[in-house]
Queue: 4 jobs
Job 1
Amino acid sequence: MKRLFILATVAVSIIIVAVACAQKTTTPQQELTKHDEEINEIIKGMSLEEKVEMLHSKTIMSSEGIPRLGIQEIRYADGPFGIREEIGDMFMPKGWKLDSATYFPTGSALAATWSTELAYKYGTGMAHEAIRRGKDMILGPAMNIQRIPVGGRTYEYFSEDPLLAGALAVGYVKGVQDQGRAVCLKHYAVNNQENDRGTVNAIVDERTLREIYLKPFKAAVIEGGAWGVMTAYNKVNGFWCSENAYLNNEILRGEWGFNGMTVSDWGGTHSTMGAALGGLNVQMTGDTYLGPALIDSINIGKIPESVVDDKVREILRVRYTVKAIPEEDANIVMASQPEEQRIAYEVASKSVVLLKNENNILPFDLNKVKNIAVIGQNAVLSTAAGGMGAGIKTLYEITPLKGLQNRIGDAATINYARGYKNYVRSWGPPVPNPNNAETIDEAADPEFIAEAVKLAKEADIVLYFAGTNKSIETEGSDRENIDLPVGQDEIAQALAEANPNLVTVIISGGPCDLRKVNDLSKAMVQGWWNGLEGGNALADILLGNIAPSGKLPFTFPLKLEDSPAFALGTYPQKKEVVKENDVFVSQYRKNDIKTDSVDKEEIDFSAFFRRPVNGPDAPYSEGLFVGYRWFDSKDLPVLYPFGYGLSYVDFNYSELKTNKESYQANDVIELRFTIQNTGSMQADEVPQVYVHRINPSVEWPDKELKAFSRVTLQPGEEKTVSLEIPVDDLRYWDEESSSWQNDLCNLEFLVGTSSKDIHLKETVSLK
């Protein structure tokens, strides 16, 4: 009996250990399946009509649950940099009182922090406001690669580098989902231009697809455990993303183990058979394809009902994981609260990039600077809304001028002049405004110049706020160029002639051509679209209350023609196609139709907006050589490189070491080096580790980012930084074997402060 007891005890111990091990090895995606047994029973009791009702929109921002069983619909929150106000048909605001949200810094600003910790905080803030609004799934993060400098959604996306984009996406995803809300990664996949986005066919080789464009999504799904994915408008290698079985079934669900739900972009579904068999769960919006037509297809035997069962199961996994907010508990307090506003400030304060600081003109000393000229409408204009796409009904927004006034008070005199006219794209009849330009390239106004020059001559320092706005960088269209608009270069010339102490602050979401203004300015600052606290954060940096620590998440080329897609002639596409309205605009903006003879309420809009199926082909001929990979491999000069950003202090790098001299396939490469703050104030530094392959057997870019960190250092403080790079992360996609392979060669690790500024080197080998 005693022996039996011992054996039983051992057996129980083994079971406990096995369960513990199983729990430790459970992946984030497997967590979604823990209610499958209950869900399967529910599906057995559902009618076909009930199931199909879940596969398309209920309202413009929701899809159906199971009302009979009290299972609530899924409510979507438009993002990704703030919870959108409540909207109804045609995306018209409902005018609620408590739906003002925190306007967080946009994607490129968050990316400039190079901080996964801040990305996590950002996600928590978004989730908290979604909970207050009763929303289940946030339509974000937006995480496509910034392939072209003119991209209309560069401001929403993170980076031209997949490692940086993926790391930030993982932080954002975990921040949201740890609070019990779901993300919807977008736009899957290869959505890298806004022109013709509803029809363009991205042609990309398999290695480039895997190593560049899918890599951030893979990280967000596997490491982050994302519960939702939004399919993109475009085609990839000939197939619409919403019905691309290779992307959605083979890779997303098969290889990556995704167990959640996919949602089409609004209006991005194209067929019943394709969507049903190609991996789409929910058609947004309407039921044209995943509605009655799907029921008919099942009834005649074209699609098995089990396909619908699978889709319902995947939706219910998310519904069971995300606790529904009862209507009586939602929208009872203001969405934006001080906690989220503090997160927005923290992100903004660590995103600002100091590009140039001649003679240490910044920070300026209020003991010496008593008269400040603030020039340019970007100092006073809001960036929370405008253009097309998701905007934020923000509770407030601190503009750069307001931030300076808040921080300076009566310690100095601040005088403001408009400087240039503002270009505002009209979505309806234009409203006359003497401050607005008629065209984006309108020459500078002599009256505005005279007003600005007068203030500049009287000032101790001139702060010139240039850049773009949300009419220029906007969803639905790409910029024609990256020139500074409305005569801003001409204004800079006049200001520099009036006062040599010219500091230029660029307020934009993406890169601009800064060659002229850079030469004219003593200091250059990239200020981004930096959220509701952006003006306070910027003022704190200009005044030296904190040290700048942002790093560029993409390259600022000397000129647009140097960037890869333009240099190779693959963008803009030259193939002529029927010019169509934008896929999103086509659905919801009736005022785009120009007719005075017909009542717009009686028009059959579907006839107006039948888009050509055969859009332009977009060959990704540069392959792996995107962004800095192109410029560094071609040894092309740039204005400011990827990863670049100055501080008010200097940092000393030393003592780079690796844990071994050679590594095998399953090893982890450990790098250690020392950083010292040699300045007189606390500051953050972002060391970056790149890898250069010395004797490879396949083609590689000159260098690729493989690790980074953000380090806070007190004056004189020295810290040892430890970073790990799994050898697995150094593999390439072999197209012949359709698998990841190691390139057994020598590796040179490069530690620096940008892709072009390397401080330390160490060579190891792969065996």
Job 2
Amino acid sequence: MRIVSEQDTSSDKRATHKRFTFYKAAMLSPYYVTVRRRIFRQLVESMLFEGIVAHTVMEGVAGTTWTIAGMSLSGQPVVYAFDGTRRHTFGRIRMNKGPVIRQAEESASEAESIGLFLLEIAGAIGADEQKVLHFIQELEQTLINDTMAQYKRHQEKLNLHELPYDDWESGIMDGHPYHPSYKSRIGFDMSDQQTFGPEFAEPIAPLWVAIRRERAQISHSFGTPNPGSSKWLQDQLGEQVLDKFTARIRQAGVDPDQYILLPVHPWQWRVILTSVLAADIHNHHILPLGSAEEFYTAQQSIRTLANRTAPSKAYLKLPLSILNTSTGRVLAPHTVANAPIITDWLKRITSHDPYLRDELRVILLGEVAGISYDNSHIPSPLQPKSYGALACIWRESIHTQLEKEESAIPFNALCALDTDERPFIAPWIERYGIERWLDELLKASISPIIHFLYAHGIALESHAQNMALVHREGLPVRVALKDFHDGIRFTRDGLSDAADCPDLVQTPEYHQRINRNSFIETPDFSAVRDFVHDAFFFINLGELAIFLQEQFGLDEITFWNKARLLIEQYQMRFPEHNERYSQFYLFEPLIGVEQLTARRLFPDTELRIHQVANPLSRHSS
């Protein structure tokens, strides 16, 4: 029995008091209002853009005023009004920086309750009542989490230009620029947010467990040691820690050769696994071993951890049974199994393609190994609790891929502002000029995406967190791509070499039922094309186009003309792909984009896709 000392108790009290004091200061700071207004903006913008709510538009001398009518909880009419602009980029609606105004009973004031807004318009849009209430919780939690993050950010005022890539991952803390519940993290409490949120960059020591070999589903890339082998474990843990863990397995009275080791996120162990897999822990199917000697910090995606003790070692992608930006963050077993298989396929394509390999020098951060826990022995009605809850994907570190004088930043850093409201990219644009800088950026980012699509028939989900920009002193040179385990899409008839397509583990019916947009193979060519549009052009380049106009005066039409010209020049250079230029026609006047907010308000009984104006279309300018 461990005796808790007064020193331990005092230390815990100090930590709790520190977190409470920080939370209180953040909630009372002006950043609470700033973040609330941002969430309101993104919520209203997305609802209008996705056609969820009826509205009226009034043109005035100072700009355009948009209004949404609703009904108060007492049955009185209310109107929400705001100023905004419809942009050329995908027809997006952008509100001005001012607040949303609530007009009721001949009085008008700033709308201060996001929850009240949704409740007052829910009847008019026919939203599902339970979905609305849960969405309100997501938005309110986003408000708390981002307020704490922004308060910390403005306290520290880090100059990210002087820091390595891993610090950019925690320092760029703005979250999804379109999704209104961009930091919901349902499942985390206030203390968890400060301990495990990427914005706080606190050191995280993954716990290690041993699982019975017959319960382990293993996958690894060609040339990567089996993650159940002693060589792999020595590389990951070092001989001293491995010996310590092996001794603990023996102390449990079992044979170490019958077990496989994998890391676990501390939160996942404490909150989820000790409960839902308690019987398996009791029965020695799972043995807790303790933590190793290296520490990690969370990347923007929260569940991916970067090794800060040895930065060249692989990133750990670990399940977190939380809900963030519409999606549960567990690791489905079929995606863990597919990760190294897809990595090998994409790397094989790249190694045999001189354009990707030699000219673009694209970096693929391979997911080289995966282990997931097989819960099939658990009664079927109880399996969803532990589905995807215990697993790991090892992803190559970007530090092993960069050449001398190259640096990397997350792609969404291009649209970020520092604490003085100055764009992070401003020094680079001042140095190289916006025309040259943008031309190099578009070449580096668009070229590999369209080449995978046109030359090989594969769409990559390269949204902001799945792409990193590699630069030399701020001048873009190439990109690094990642997150392949469920981030590609293809139709077999559109592949350049269908015979080379690997056998992938199919998406289980249960998983498809809870996430209808989670699939890799489809017979629909337009679904493959729009996968690129939605992730890359709509999010990555769409945000950048608007940002460059707002911050540097570069016209959006000029931006998209440059992007279209680059694609047209590519097509002239590679006429051998003419058939796929038609199959995956990127210049359609309308393209399909996922309705991220509609998914939070209506039952998930269908794919929520709507058709939007395509700025790449020759008719758009």
Job 3
Amino acid sequence: MDKLKMHSPDLSQDNIAKIRELFPGCVTETRDETTGKLRLSVDFDQLKQELSNDIVEGPQERYRLDWPGKREALATANAPIGKTLRPVRDQSVDFDTSDNLLIEGDNLEVLKVLQESYLGRVKLIYIDPPYNTGRDFIYDDDYSTETGDYLRQSGQAEELGNRLIANTEANGRFHSDWLSMMYPRLRLAKNLLADDGVLFISIDDNEVDSLRKIGCEVFGDMNFVATIIWQKVYAPKNSAKWFSEDHDFVLVFAKNRQAWFPNQLPRTEEMAARYKNLDDDPRGPWKAENMTARNPYDAGVYPVETPSGRRISGPPTGTYWRISKEKFLALEADNRIWWGKDGNNTPAVKKFLSEVSSGRTPQTLWSYKEVGHTQDAKKTLLKYVPFENTENVLNSVKPVELVQRIVQLATKPDENAIVMDFFSGSAPTAHAVLEQNRIDGGNRRFIGVQIAEPLPIPEDRMKTIFDMGRMRLLSVIEEFKAQGKNTKGFRVFKLDNSNMKDIYYRPDELSQGDLLEAVDNVKSDRTPEDLLFQVLVDWGVDLTLPIRRETLQDKTVFFVDDNALVACFDSGVTEDLVKELAKHEPLRVVFRDNGFVSDAVKINVEQIFRQLSPSTEVRSL
């Protein structure tokens, strides 16, 4: 039977396969120097010939953003890794029933691990990446290794060291390092977005121009939607040396701008208050709209007579009536023209509240009065997280109201939308999803990813920013439940090296003395549930599907989403157990490679399923 590959997709090979579909003559096979296996490779000279009548050697001048390390960043985005997600039940809330995810780990690697399980399924991604201010920490990715070495290192080596560095302005690669951090993450994020999905990114003046350029490169210029200005403070900073910086930006990129449109926002009380009913019209409140316009309109010049008897020869000089005389007479007959209380004013058209849209078109200027400011964000964080040291309170946290506005624009309550934040921090995005679901009864889900960045001062109940976000969500859920509100918990996962021993990836280095060690290819500290979730990741299955654990013939068997996947990782699997599992007719079934009671049983597994459940896909690990 086939074995699971146990590493994230090799995106470079996927891209080459797409090129081969268009230009089969431009792709060939070469032998990988590291693994000795055949891989697809592109004949770039031939590809140039396919794409151009004339071949021009050397780099061409064109409009683009370039920086030292860009090609390495692209290679890093495409390189596969041999890592997995391990469930952490004791840090989760309602693990067995929740469909929310909170993942601890480097977001670049987590994005790779999630590529198959959530490919094209995420409706909204909101991120608030570290701003490039010269003080904040950014991710220090390793761009120096080749693809083969990267796979080997990520699959079996120790962690590559501290993944966070201070990017000071004295660094000669000040902008380059930040761009190299963002570029591969945006490329991987785009893969996860649904066709009608959208990405919102918070940023400040330091990198807004560069971020828009790389965003346009990843998503395409045609899919840039808007630059939103968020008023982040409620009072000017008089201590500012030049200007008081009162705003941040939020850049918006759609996966496909022709398929994504923002939802309308609810009308405000102030907007509704503009509608009165000055003449007790039975159709309800209305407001008077100007009947003149500046655009020339041939049918828009004619005299009118007021109810008081005054004759108006026409619209004011330089303007035109917006409607024809025939339309005007029809509206007047329907009591839709307002002449003022004394019946002597210039005519206006009555627009009834009952006839206007219940929503309002979103604007690109967001006031703190509507979506909160930085002090609101800190107060909310302090409300839900019991800090022992004020030095640990984040200065860059975003208001829940700000993210709620984004959630309202990009998702609907009843579409089971997945909302993702892979710079989760103190989890304001997850908080906003829970809060918006509470308000409108929605069924949105969240995926939050945060590296285990240490707090400035470790505390008894939390050591990292990930712990801070988890504690915040615990408090929010407890509050909702105390109010009698139904709310979802979350499943916690931790990114870790593969559950498989090193020999799984490098059998060529196996020596005779390692043969006994090689009998079991699973690490000794890994549980059956660890193996189950690695299988779900490898098979591209949703990590929040319901899981049922049963004991059959003294063996533990996992049923994922009833019969979507059945797994047994115990040893001593007999032919009788295999037959019993086959009777469930699962879509997929997986066993431990050395888990069978004999080689004969292992050989017969596929034949048994072929007879009893021919549509079942059988694999081992």
Job 4
Amino acid sequence: MPERSESDSRKLLKRLRDSLAEPGQGQERLNRVTHLIADSMLTEVCSIYLFRDAGTLELCATEGLLAESVHQTRLRLGEGLVGRVARTAVPVNTANAPSEKGFRFMPETGEEIYSSFLGVPIQRVGEKLGVLVVQSKAARQFSDDEVYALEVVAMVLAEMTELGAFLGDGAALGALHKQPVMFRGTTGQEGTAEGQVWLHEARVVVTNPVADDPEVELTRIRAAVGELRVSVDDLLAAQSLDKEQKKVLEAYRMFAHSRGWLRRMEEDIQAGLSAEAAVEKEQSATRARLSQVPDAYLRDRLHDLDDLSNRLLRILTGQGRDTGAALPENPVLVARNIGPAELLEYGRSLRGVVLSEGSVGSHAAIVARALAIPLVIHAEGVVVQALNGDAILVDGDQGIVHLRPEESVAAAFRDKIAMQTQAQLRYADLRDKPAQSLDGQKISLQMNAGLMADLPSLESSGADGVGLFRTELQFLIRNKMPKRDELARLYARVMDAAKGRRVAFRTLDIGSDKVLPYMKPQDEPNPAMGWRAIRVGLDKPGVLQMQAQALIRAAAGRPLSIMFPFIAEYEEYLDARAYVMAQVKREADLGHPTPETLEIGAMLETPSLAFAPLDFFKATDFLSIGGNDLKQFFFAADRENERVRRRYDSLNASFLGLIRQIIARCDEAGTTLSFCGEDAGRPIEAVCFAAIGLRSLSMRPASIGPVKSLIRRTDLAALRAVIDAECAKGSVSVRPAVMEFLAEQAK
């Protein structure tokens, strides 16, 4: 491979480093940088565009264009050649810029006399910061060496931007980690929190992007890659790995042993970068390439690349290793994603959790709900923007995160927290009072749980019992299948903590978005409608039988309630029930105590089950409507898809009609019915469900107070009349009329 003008690029980088080391404000430094680059690359123009916000670029410095256009010229993402570079993170190199598709003429800059254009992204680990451009009057294509040299310079500018080298009074200037930032994500768990950032994986900060001695840096990178490869090989040699885990690690090892990866980093070092900067440059470049490919498998390999690059950076810098640093006083965990076991290790010490990825049904979301920790997911960019110790506000109700908030924002947020605290104190007064409406109807309010840590909420929330105990969390947080005796001890502790209150144990609900670490992943195009929940239990009955044995032994002669998830037809319920009854007989034959009473029920989560024969409703001891799944299948709206999950209203007349049909079937069969899901914990929805005939609702503990408060202030018979009238009129949703009724009632 031909040498890349290494002496010239190294000379340019050293001049750049020396220039940035000189005193001066941000604008002054940017001006020196553009002059230096134009001079070194023999071009008439060098310009730096930085992101003013996520969708807008601003001209922040230029050599050659009109000075008065600085901080005045702005481009939208994707607009013009500069916007194209910013959007795609791919260089644009042309000898005739005006003839290029998408070219935008900006007369205020005086650029019409410049024909040649070369623009490269200023980025750091997939984080787009801006665009670096050089232009010349002569119509010429820039050489590969010139493109490479400008990319190397852009890499250094990205690192220096992060370190605050351009902090100043310009409109779009400022250190990356100094300014207030707001992220709009998705609610994973309601609640609000104020605290300090604690990064799950501390960010490695490169403080020396330019190298003095390439030979020293080459020795460092080769030694670090060698250490990385040994550690990956050691992981692969572990005896406990199954076939699937080995396959994943083999792909991981292929990345680590890639000769091209090391060669490219060595070339970056020869061009003048330090070992650390070379790692980040290749990480950014490969990320940009992989993010554009249509193959989902290749895009998923970004996680492998990021993990390897970050591990290599930690080896080179020593950052991110066990430094003994302690959690801040009010930690808010910030991560790309996190597993349930890792989140549980932090426990209730966390004030909140913010993820740049994740899903509403992910393991992390389930644990966050169990721990009653506010959670915001899909907060894109938060991991690269945040540093340990940064002030952060988490609004789980709105799915909004404020990083390094201005004092006015923080003050308003504290007012909101104070109001919520006052409301919770009012709800606490209702703890021992029944959820009885103005017209005398009593509603049983149950809580959802999945961990021992949930059980104290039975007392503090005033819940009548546990309407749903998720047994899968004990499987998800382990690296291997739990033993029967372990589960029996846990279930016994749950019953002990309930102090005689009913606990409905849902059997293992895995598949879809809940995959066991030791279970072979199923490559399914639509996992939510695939091999999951009771379907897994019936196909792999050993686990279902083991769980039944553990529950029977845990009951030790006490009443026991078991329900099966995701039953779609009568026969599935009969088959699952038969497995449980066989274990009851087995335990009796062994001389072990059997439950005093045994209730066996099902989750009604598919519309098909609402149309099951009446014999099904008679055969079940109880039913619980799984509102989250039932709603997504009824409206054909994936609850993991933000474009559609909020599109459909739970108070839609058609959906209420389905629930009314289920209530009528259960009344006819004499079967107890409850509603379990997010909507059960929303006061407006909950009071409407109660009005149309549901007598039991199961929700997160924090929702019991607000729901009870509204029920006690509502005449359910009068509300039912409003709902009936709206449905009779053919209204699409009863919500407007319900809101009007409740407002009048509150007067």
